[in-house]
Amino acid sequence: MDTIYKIVIGISIALGVTFTFENSYMMGLILTLVLLIYNLIICLIDKYVPVNVKLTSYIIILSTIVTIIEIILKEHIPALYSNLGIYLPLLVLLGYDYDKVNTKDIKTNIIYSLKLGLSFTLFLTIIGCIREVLGSNTLTIISSISNLVGFKLIYNIPTSNILPMEMFLTNSGAFITVGILLAVFNKLKVKHD
Amino acid sequence: MIKLFIGSIFISNIVLTKFLGIDFKDATKVLYTSLVSAFICIVSGIVNYIIYYNLLVVLKADYLKTIIFILSITTISNIVILLIKKYLTNIYSKIEDCIPVILTNSLIIGISLLIINNGYNLIDTIVYSIGSSIGYILIMLLCYYLDSELSKRKVLGSFKGYPILLVTLGIICMIISRI
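ok -> structure tokens follow
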């Protein structure tokens, strides 16, 4: 539950991307990939970089990784790239408190970045699932990457009087679901202690 | 152009989806940090526009925009903070704790990228960045006052602090976006 405070910093991504279920888990997987590569590179380089240059060089490394992933996505999966929009370059900002990460050991770095990335993915998928099921009565698992995989997988839930509430697809619904989820996490944390 | 100005002050899906805030205990601190962020946003919006259209498009290097924008934003913000430290020391002593919030604000990068995606010209970028930074100041002050009011009322145990603030912001955003 330490990740909640990092999530508060990354909340703009959580609000803007999670209007479908597939967007949210793709964004989380991209985030874990970026974190893994970044932490590996930093852990190997850290001894040889002089102290004055460290901050700017780490920023440049992180932004080049994000740019490479952006170009690959734009070329091969243009549907996902247009869905993610301008929230993909905002992944660079999540790296600002990572230049003081434990840089002692490759194994602990890998475990740390996997733990952080996968917990963020879990958080995003919960938000995305709630917002999509309540907002529009579908649950898309594979729709934008269909040119790679070859099929689409969309579940339809039958409409009823209350079910497609369009509020949850807008920004206000995002705020409300994130607020309620953070309250649920607080309650679980209190029970756990 | 007036329509752009008014629309960019109240455009809630820009400010409310891209704000990145930690709530403080002091009204002047909130005001000064948001003022500094707004100033950095205006300056870097114009500078990024000039850099993009005169350097990157001429060299056909559109893919480098994230790197170059982030570098320019960090340099501009560091220069502004150093200038404030030297010449306006009373303001600096108030915003000293909140420098990481200013430096990692996602509003500034978002506005620079949106300027390019929407294809504005120079006067439109000036109007747009001024408008959205004014909107940002208003929203941050609103969050501070909401937080101080909500902490006085009776709130359920696990909703205290951040979650109830998000829910009320969602309701306000619902009201504003129906205009």
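Residues 1-21 of chain B have pLDDT under 50 and may be disordered.
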